[in-house]
Write a structure and sequence with these properties.
The complex is a heterodimer. By secondary structure, chain A is of the alpha+beta class. Helix content of chain A is 72%, strand content 8%. A 4-stranded antiparallel beta sheet of chain A has the order 2-3-1-4. Helices cover 33% and strands 27% of the residues of chain B. In chain B, helix 3 crosses helix 4. Classes of the chains: A alpha+beta, B alpha/beta. At the A-B interface, helix 8 and helix 9 of A face helix 2 and helix 3 of B.
């Protein structure tokens, strides 16, 4: 027996219209929760994209005191070579450091103009053989104790801190999204229950004349799917809006150092929309499915 | 057509609605179920279209043991067993023709077949001219005619009627009984629960009397008591 599409559409449509307030609430809740899912997916992709390089890179920046003598610099260089744990090492003298400084802050000419090469510390850029954090930090500590060394900075550390905060933030977004999805399921469940109740006369007649189970259930399942999918349509808009806002406020702002490293491409946005539609459909189907199996026992 | 063997139905573990009932109803029979309220008439009918299942005994309808019928086969049974009620159970938001069409739609009949069948059955029950009226624009007798049309449009083998004249005045009731008699003459088995002494005594059909869930009388061409 063919599914009567016009029947399902008519009945579903009248259910949706009859139950407008609940329908509206269900769709909005689905939309908000799915937007959070999309945002969390994009941030997660961004974290993966931006820190992949930094994860494998364990570099040490050994900054010398501006007042350090040449002997002290020599001694540090020797200590680095003798440690036996170093893969490569580069020395940045004042001119090279200034060059780098100019590049980094090319957007802020005032700052560049106010700094002279002599003001900048020389440094060794050390790449250890091991990527083990403990070995790297013990090497760093031993170098930091040498005369003339101002500070040893770990390139990955700051990045990791940012990554950790963003990941924590993302966990909360995910967590809230999941709770809202659960709320969506409950809301759809209740909306469908109300629709079943509103149509109890029709259902009674259908059962009496011998309608099949799936025939009676179809409009209600379809209604739940409409909730989920309309919510997903709004959430897709939400995902694009989030994408735009993030780019405008973080990626294109130099002042958010590292946070602007968290970026994703169009493929990720498309993927987030796909995910939103899949989860939306599942949410609608589960919510209405539970309601129908509980309140439409034939 | 309908065969009950030692059927017992107990509600909620206490109230016995039907006790050890055995009945054999042939195809084309017209049977009245009589007895006081709560004697088990409605339960008897509800057992025949699997609205209820018996605790003990077997029920055969149209050759099938319906106690053993799996859930997904119940719709097939109900397509062969029409039902009419005291309160009509019409859909107030649909007009007469739509109410009848709704039943055919529910069992997946194609649109063209529905368009053909609905006016036919409405003519049969004498409502051909009121197909566009809403239920609340009809008299009680007319509403019951719509409900009979809905139950019979699919030409079921059996028609169950639970006090179909319970809400109607005597003159209107006669009209409804004439209609049910006409349907019975097409070969449809009719089982009707009723309190209406006048109807039973006039029609002189088979009478099964129930009292407190027991069959106390089963009489061919019987009277109310």
């Amino acid at each position: 027996m063919a599914i009567r599409l016009d029947y399902v559409m008519r009945e579903t449509g009248s259910n949706l219209a009859r139950n407008f307030t609940l329908t509206f609430a269900a769709i909005i809740t689905v939309a908000v929760s799915l937007t959070m899912v999309a945002a969390s997916f994009l941030i997660g992709q961004g974290i993966n994209n931006s820190f992949l390089g930094l994860r494998s890179e364990q570099r040490l920046f050994v900054y010398m005191n501006p007042t350090a003598s040449e002997e002290q610099t020599e001694a540090v260089s020797k200590a680095i070579d003798d440690s036996g744990q170093v893969d490569t090492v580069e020395f940045y003298d004042r001119d090279r450091t200034y060059e780098e400084f100019q590049t980094l802050f090319r957007d802020q000419p005032d700052l560049v103009n106010s700094v002279n090469p002599e003001d900048l510390p020389t440094s060794f850029r050390v790449k250890p053989e091991s990527t083990d954090a403990e070995i790297v930090s013990s090497l760093g500590e031993s170098l930091e104790s040498l005369e003339g060394v101002k500070q040893v900075a770990y390139a990955a550390e700051y990045a990791r801190n940012v990554q950790r905060s963003v990941t924590t933030l993302n966990r909360w977004v995910q967590f809230t999204g999941l709770i809202l999805i659960a709320a969506s399921v409950l809301l759809i469940f209740n909306t469908i229950r109300t629709a079943v109740f509103a149509r109890r006369r029709e259902i009674e007649v259908q059962r009496l004349v011998g309608a099949r189970n799936w025939f009676i259930r179809m409009p209600f399942i379809a209604e739940g799917l409409v909730h989920g999918l309309l919510g997903a349509v709004l959430a897709a808009g939400g995902a694009f809006a989030f994408n735009t806002l993030w780019k405008r406020n973080f990626v294109e702002q130099v002042s958010f150092e590292l946070l602007n490293e968290i970026r994703w491409d169009t493929g990720d946005v498309v993927m987030s929309v796909v995910i939103v539609f899949i989860i939306g459909a599942i949410t609608g189907a589960v919510g209405s499915g539970i309601a129908v199996s509980r309140f439409l026992r034939v | 057509m309908i065969k009950l063997e030692n059927v017992t139905k107990v509600y909620k573990g206490e109230h016995v609605a039907l006790r050890d009932a055995s009945v054999d109803i042939q195809k084309g029979e017209f049977v009245f179920l009589v007895g006081p309220s709560g004697s088990g008439k409605s339960t008897f009918l509800r057992l025949l279209n699997r609205e209820e299942r018996p605790e003990k005994g077997t029920i055969h309808v149209a050759g099938k043991n319906i106690g053993e019928l799996p859930g997904h086969k119940v719709p097939d049974l109900r397509r062969n067993v029409g039902a009419v009620f005291q309160d009509f159970k019409l859909l107030p938001t649909k007009n007469v023709a739509e109410n009848v069409a709704f039943a055919l739609e529910a069992i997946g009949r194609p649109k063209t077949a529905i368009k053909e069948a609905v006016p036919q059955i409405l003519d049969l029950v004498g409502l051909g001219s009121k197909s566009k009226n809403m239920p609340d624009e009809l008299s009680g007798g007319e509403q019951q005619r719509v409900s009979i049309a809905r139950a019979f449009v699919n030409r079921p083998l059996i028609l169950l009627a639970d006090e179909p004249t319970g809400n109607l005045d005597p003159a209107t009731s006669v009209g409804i009984m004439k209609l049910l008699d006409r349907i019975n003459r097409t070969g449809t088995t009719v089982v009707m629960a009723t309190h209406d002494r006048g109807i039973v005594d006039t029609m002189r059909r088979r009478v099964i009397e129930l009292d407190n869930g027991r069959i106390v009388r089963d009489q061919v061409r019987g009277v109310y008591e």
